[in-house]
Amino acid sequence: MDTAESDVSLSTLDRAVVNAFQGGFPVVAEPWAPAAAALRERGVETTADELLTAVRELDESGVLSRFGALVNAEEIGGTATLVATHAPDDQFEEIVETINDHHEVAHNYEREHPHLNVWFVLSVADEDRVPEVLAEIESETGQETYNMPKQEEFHVGAKFLLDGPVPDGDVDCSDAGPAVEPTDRRSLTPRERDLIVEIQGGLPISRTPYADVADAVGQPTDWVVETIKRFDGEGKVRRVGVIPNHYALGYSENGMTVWDVPDDRLAEVGPAVAELGFVTHCYHRPRHEGVWPYNFFAMTHGRDEAESQRRIRQVREVMTDHWDVTEGDWDTLFSTQILKKTGIRLDERADAHTASTDTTSQH
């Protein structure tokens, strides 16, 4: 994993928190003591109270986007897809506003490309709604949209590490607490739906975060702990821990590298690129003949353009180990501005995939 020297002024403990707990935070009724013990094992002297205070101050200062469980919306139900379109300079603001007015649009970025300069994520509870919403957007803007749904996911979620303690970011306390068995059930029970909606924005940064959530949803603390741990095992939660604001850590440049990988090489190229620590997302997506020749996306992050270019070269080096890459086989689309970033609305997707009754036993 790459480490970075941040522009923000962080203490040794702050840096240890950011590095150590981007995943694998304890899911137990009182998590701060085992988390602090894990840091002390790595040479960082701290107490449960000091650790709680540090996380709270990091959150309040904006270094963290939030603290808690990162919910995997795809496993809750519905779908999200990446869409590109063109917005001419003289209509740019009008077209962007029209697109953003659709509540199904969760994220929207302007990216450097001679034609496809607007890229947005569409999130819907029912995947049949995707063509309907895109048809509405095309009718309203007069511009064609290019849907690029994920066909295979190779990696999501790189860690943003800082110079300091726990440089490998490998503290993992996810084994703490009760043992739970994952299920293959896709739908949510009503109380699981309430839990997902309650934690989607983060956990309370308190001495007993899971008990506070339990109070909010009217369930026992043991049930909340067991369910979040089970969700982690089932993939409904990607990880539990601190979610850094990568801009606050100095990672201001993000480049969406796109590649025209031979179809018969995707299975080997995907995992190889996913091993690069600075690649945060890595997907196989469809081409669009005559408009979009690329079928492989790898998102990179850097603190400046020079670092971003260096990392892009590293992606290319990995690519060339597997196929003969030419200049026409790839491109990088840097984001120039964030046009919308509300996040995926889990409420609607959870509602649509909640069973009418709760068949699981109550504590």
How is the main sheet built? Answer: 9 strands, antiparallel
Radius of gyration: 21 Å
The helix/strand series, from N terminus to C terminus, equals EHHHEHEHEEHEEEHHHEEHEEHEH
**Secondary structure: helix percent:** 25-40%
- Number of E-type strands: 13
Q: How do the strands line up in the largest sheet?
A: 6-3-5-4-13-10-12-11-7
What is the topological layout?
Layout: E1 3-4, H1 12-20, H2 32-41, H3 48-60, E2 64-71, H4 73-76, E3 79-85, H5 92-100, E4 105-111, E5 118-124, H6 129-141, E6 145-148, E7 152-156, E8 161-162, H7 190-199, H8 209-217, H9 221-234, E9 237-244, E10 253-259, H10 266-274, E11 279-284, E12 296-302, H11 305-320, E13 330-341, H12 346-352
Parallel strand pairs: 1-8
Antiparallel strand pairs: 2-9, 3-5, 3-6, 4-5, 4-13, 7-11, 10-12, 10-13, 11-12
Helix pairs in contact: 2-3, 7-8, 8-9
